[in-house]
Every structure is written in C-alpha cells, then in structure tokens.
Amino acid sequence: MRQLKTRILCSLTPHENIYTIPNILTLSRLAAAPVVGYLVLHDQHAWALGLFAYAGITDLVDGYIARRWKLQTVVGTVIDPMADKVLMTILTVCLAVKGALPVWLASIILARDVGLGIAAIYYRWISLPPPKTFARYWDFSLPSAEVHPTTISKVNTALQLALIGACTAQPLIAADVSTAMNLMQYLVASTTIWSGASYIYTKDAVKILSEAERRSKVE
Q: Using CA atoms, how far apart are residues 175 and 183, in angstroms rounded to an integer?
C-alpha cells in the first residue's frame, strides 16, 4: 500500500523539460571548469584564458536564448549560478595555490560559496514535493524552488569573474598591473561579504514553489 501511494505521488508530481539549449550550454560550462583549473595549475595560461572566455560567452548566450525563446526552467535558475560558482571555486583554489590570488581573499570567496551551497541543499530538501527520496532530490525536472540572485550578488559575480579572468591573464601581460590588481582584490572582498549577507536579509532571494506554480512551470 505504501509503495502504491509513493508511485501515485510520483506520477502526479509535475516534471519540466530540462533538456534545453540554455541548460546544455550551462552544463558545458560546468564541464569546462575543471579543465580550466588543470590548465592554470600546469601554467597553460593562454589555453586557460581561452576556455575561461568560452565560459563567459556561453553565460551570456544561454541567458539570451532562454529569454528570447522562453526556454527558462526552474533547474536553469539553479544550475546557471551553480556553473558560475563551480568555475569560480575551482579557479579560486587553483590561482591561490599558484600564488596568483591572496589566500585571505580566496578564503572569503570560498566561505561565502560554502554557506550558499549548504543553504541550497537545505532549501531543495524542504521544498521537494513528497515523497522525499534521494532519487527525487536529484531529479531536477522536479521544480521545487527558484533562486533569484540579488542585485549585489550579480555585481559581485561580475567583479569576481573579472578578477579571476585578470589573474588568469596576468602572466600574459607585460605591463605592471599590481596596483590595479590590489584595488580589485579589496573591492571583490567587500562585494563578496555584502552579497553573502544580502541572501539573509532579502526575502525573495529564494522562493519555494506552490503546487500551482510547480504545475505552471511544466505547462
């Protein structure tokens, strides 16, 4: 009887189409992240910078396609910032290991991302429609919550990507840019702390979907 009830609940839970071009582009960014980190660690700066540029371009393109052809998905609101964070995390660690990024700044960036990651795991679990199972937890065609990045978070992501890109490109630049890099590092540290706090005091940063909203996402 319990198994029958579980099957009925699963069949009634709405699923959305997650196999869209924007989501595929986002997944390609996720796949590229460890490759960029590997290239940085092995001093292949030109290749690393090229792949980093690819990640930045696809980040713009997938958002444009999703808006232009109405291909937005709930899973897209989750994996798009996740792809940015995975790329940022890997490059932050790799650049810190290589001495291109200060350890204190890397610690601030990583601490914020770990905190947001734990929060994402928690919200996914509490918003998941019953039955709550491990398989359903990782089934991202089941919409349960939307993430709405705050304004300062968007600014911070842009600044972090600019700093990480600059650190990746710095070995290829002959000019002395140390002063500009130092200023950029302090600016990113400030926006990182601010953006992390914004998810605490911004009420609509994470929205748990109602049954009606979940069904509207898949229609």
A: 16
Q: Where are the alpha helices (DSSP H) in 98-140?
A: 103-127, 134-137
User: Are 101 and 92 spatial neighbours (Cβ–Cβ below 8 Å)?
Assistant: yes
- Terminus-to-terminus CA distance in the chain, angstroms? 30
Containing H/E element for 3?
A: helix 2-12
The CA-CA-CA angle for residues 169, 84, 191, to 5°, reads 80
Q: Is-above-0.70 flag for pTM?
A: yes
Backbone dihedral angles phi then psi of residue 14, each to the nearest 5 degrees: -70, 140
* pLDDT given at position 1: 52
Q: How many CB atoms lie within 10 A of CB 139?
A: 16
Tell me which residue of 127, 154, 131 sits closest to 217, measured CA to CA: 127
Q: One-letter amino acid identity for 109? A: I
Place of tokens 């890397």: 106
pLDDT in tens, 54-85: 999 998 998 889 888 888 887 787 788 888 88
- Residue 198 burial (C-beta neighbours within 10 Å; 0-12, 13-18, 19+): middle
The confidence score (pLDDT) of residue 177 equals 92
> 145 pairs with which residues across the strands?
208
